[in-house]
Amino acid sequence: MTVAYPRKFQNTLSARDILKGVIGDRELHLITLNRYRYSEQRSCKDLTELIEKLDGKPAELVRDLSHHISDEARHAMWLTDLLIELGANVGNPPGNSYIDEFERLLDHEQKDPTKDLDDFVISALAAINVTEKRGCEYFSAHIYALKQGPQTEENIKIRETIEKILPEEAGHVRWGNRWLGQLADKSPAHRQKVEQAKHKYAAIEQAAFEAGMDITLGAELRRLANLVEVANTMPLWQRPQYLIERLPQTLLAPELQFTRIEVAQRVWRRDPQAFIEKFVPMFLNGLKAKDYNREKTTA
């Protein structure tokens, strides 16, 4: 089967590039850890809802998902303990939510476990699998950045916590791969559905990931391009409804405007000179960066 890996941010910045900068800014570092905590905690809720939709079938998958919830809850606990020990905020993290954007882009209305259980399970597992891969990529990059950075007591505590989480997250990826492989082996039709689901949810995850990272000028247009990319993974008759339902929020993106203001205020309060010399040029270069990335990918 095809193996789908997370792509770089705008085909330019790798997870290592991003985390190298994150660990050098304590406030941003703690926000990032809190985002991890929030994601692990939210996974418990989402996986519980999935179990309820499955309604006991297949029993083996319900069992595995229950174990998965236990792991995610433990990760959230470890991260919460760490953040409180460091005196950090454990409220809902600021900025665009990767999870909320991922769920907004999902096509829940197309899948019904009571009508076609296998289709529903394939979609659910493909969605889980692609987000777990992103998590593994970032946890691994975070550990690498911390090993390269200053070996302070705080950084060591952070690294040790993430090192406990990463092996279990990698286990979740292997578990998802096994389930998808077993479903694909049922028939050629099942294999095709698995491949299509992996392709579609990889596009959805990339769009959600970039939406959570990109606040620069032109982000709305880049969100639109990613939305069209997702729609193109679907059958022709599903695309119009999918696009129409998600187009207004994609272009207006009220949470994006709020995040821009919030980030600008935070940078200004910390360092007005950096706001003028770094933040404003970065913000204005958003459209230019998009053109540059497009040239790189088409060259």
3D structure, described in words:
There is one protein chain. By secondary structure, this protein is mainly alpha-helical. The protein is built from 12 helices and no strands. Helix 4 packs across helix 7. It is globular. It starts with 14 loop residues before the first helix and ends with a helix.
Instruction: Report the sheet-strand fraction.
Output: under 5%
Low-confidence stretches: 289-299
Terminal Cα span: 28 Å
Helix content: over 70%
Major beta-sheet overview: none
Radius of gyration: 20 Å
State the shape: globular
| Element-level helix/strand string | HHHHHHHHHHHH
Mean of pLDDT: 87
So how many helices?
Answer: 12
Which structural class do the helices and strands define?
mainly alpha
Question: How many E strands?
Answer: 0
